[in-house]
Design brief:
0% strand, mainly alpha, single chain, 159 residues, elongated
Amino acid sequence: MRSEEEVVRAMDTYADLVRRLCLVRLKSREDTEDIFQTVFLKYLQHTKPFANAEHEKAWFIQVTLNACRDLLRFWARRPTVPLEALAAQAAPEPEDRSVLEAVLSLPEKYRDAVYLHYYEGYSAPEIGDLLGKNTNTVYTLLTRARALLREKLGGEEDG
């Protein structure tokens, strides 16, 4: 890695060059700042010595252009939708949140077990390991939580 003095010298010498190249290629100040950081991080990690100042300048130009090209390719591969098209779409109908609200209203010891079991798909022994509880305790917590939820939501009794 390069010393702090080398990096500071390089930034003083090539910062404007890197920024101008980025602005011309990317037309975005935010992207320019991202690439600027990337280029100087690569310089910091670059260990090979440069033959002369022209070689160093050429390295900065090449690395900057490559980083800009990579960023443009990244965005070209991502499908985008104009904001106007999104605004024209109707807002989605709110989903029935009564079950989620009922689960969230459970006491914490039940809520954790229910969430881990039904939303994350963990088994009772796995939940026991995660929460530091006996497996039978987890089964009891789930049974009691289901009873509380049935009471809150007005569900049918198990047969």
